[in-house]
Amino acid sequence: MVGTLLTVGILIALALTHFFPDNPGLVLAVCLLCVLPISIITIRAQLEHMLSLFRALTGTVTSYKDGDFSFSLHWPQNDELSDLVAAHNELGDVLRQQRLDLVQRELLLDTMVQNTPVAMLLVSESGPVVYANVAARQLLNEGRKLEGHRIDDVLAHASPALLEAMARGGDGLFTTKEGGTEIDEEEVYHLARRSFNLNGRRHELLLLRQLTMELRRQEVQTWKKVIRVISHELNNSLAPLTSLAHSGAELVRRGQTERLPQILATIEERTRHLESFILGYARFAKLPTPRLEVQAWPAFLARLHDEVEFTQTGEAPAEPCAFDPAQLEQALLNLLKNAHESGSPPDQVSLEVRRLQGAVRIDVQDRGPGMSETVLTNALVPFYSTKRSGTGLGLALAREIAEAHGGRITLANRDGGGLTVTMILPLASGLS
To answer: What is the pLDDT of residue 78?
Structure first.
């Protein structure tokens, strides 16, 4: 554009100089009068194209803000503005592809959430339901839409068990009856609640998972395992008893009674073992509620030491505590017996009682081989045992006793070999 204007100006100047060689001022003035309007018109036309491009850029940016990435621009000239337009179009292509990928992921996620058997409700802090999947609609509103309804109105028609679980707060299990028949079936649900901020506002996510089928499956598996363990133990005891009784009868028939005391002693030993086995199952199945009594730790540990060998680490707390002495003694006897049966040297089996902030910690340690990751995961499960003659009830009973006191048990391998079984009894649940 500039080169064209200069060429035109030079040609006009040469022509005027030829006609007016003695008046250069007039030549300059005429040149300006000729070139200036053409320059203004040309520059204005070019600026109009550029302004149109800038308006188009503004419009596409506004469309991007609104989530519309379908626009692209065209600039015919090969200059810096064409580079800007090309970069702008590439940005639009990238955003358009990202938006398409995001939509596909949202569709996939929505399909998964809608078809999951877990009932999901998203509730805003003001009360209305923001989102509910198919399972939630079927569970709470006979398949009808829940979005927009207040959660209190939705739960007004829910089962009393769900209302009680909501009132308790936090996660938990509840049982309700369903079916509408003369024989209603009990259904077990797990309620999980999570709060978080969404778009600057507080929301709560409610998850209701039906556990009935899973619990029934676990119950069947547990009963099968119990039957296998009991059958194995009964066979191990009854088969020798039958053989010994037959041998004793034959000896009596022959008049050879000198071996009868040995046979009867063996029968008595196997009978007592079977009795102990059955009593162990009975204690686990019928663990009573702990009867808390104030106990002094030194006297309690002295009585325990009379039952089983162990090394006491550190001084026992001077303050007395409230717990069920018979149950806690049984739990610690099981833990110490396991420690001795691990192959640990007897003098390396130790017990330590420490007072924590609001709790009591009891550690039973040994120097046996420890446990593998698989055994650590399953050791507290009832009837799980790696011993040929084990019932799998020692650790499980100890855990039941600890949890009945409001505490817990953990297992951990020790550095250098061995196992640490830790029992935590919180003072807040009755201990002092």
So the answer is: 75
Write out pLDDT tens, residues 401-411: 888 888 888 88
Which structure tokens are listed for 217? Answer: 């499956």
> 429 falls in which pLDDT band (50, 70, 90)?
very low
Nearest CA to 315 among 358, 351, 339? Answer: 351
Query: Measured in Å, how far apart are the chain's first and last C-alpha atoms?
Result: 96
223-256: per-residue pLDDT in tens? 777 677 667 667 767 777 788 888 888 888 888 8
Domain boundary assignment for the chain: 2-105, 116-210, 215-285, 293-429
Length of the chain: 432
Third-level CATH fold of 116-210: Beta-Lactamase (3.30.450)
Q: Is 427 exposed, middle or buried (0-12, 13-18, 19+ CB in 10 A)?
A: middle
Compute the average pLDDT of residues 88-103. 81
> So what CATH class is 215-285?
mainly alpha
Cβ partners under 8 Å of residue 24, min gap 6: 17
* Residues paired with residue 204 on neighbouring β-strands, in sequence order: 123, 195
* Sequence-ordered list of residues with C-beta below 8 angstroms from that of 389, at least 6 positions apart, any chain: 236
Share above pLDDT 90 across residues of the chain, in percent, rounded to a whole number? 9
- Report the run of H or E that residue 63 belongs to, with start and end: helix 24-65
Beta strands in 142-248 (DSSP E): 172-178, 185-198, 201-210
| Strand pairing category for 293-295 and 311-312 | unpaired
Q: Are 126 and 149 in contact (CB under 8 A)?
A: no
Read off the pLDDT band of 33 (50, 70, 90). low
**Domain 293-429, CATH 3.30.565.10 — does that match?**
yes
Quick check: do 116-210 and 293-429 share a fold?
no
Q: Cβ atoms within 10 A of the Cβ of 148, count?
A: 9
pLDDT over 90 at 109, yes or no? no
How high is the pLDDT of residue 231? Answer: 74
**Cα gap 400→285, rounded to integer Å:** 10
DSSP 127: S
Is the distance from CB of 5 to CB of 45 less than 8 angstroms? no
Alpha-carbon 307 to chain mean position:
42
Half-sphere exposure of 228 toward its Cβ, with a 13 Å CA cutoff? 12
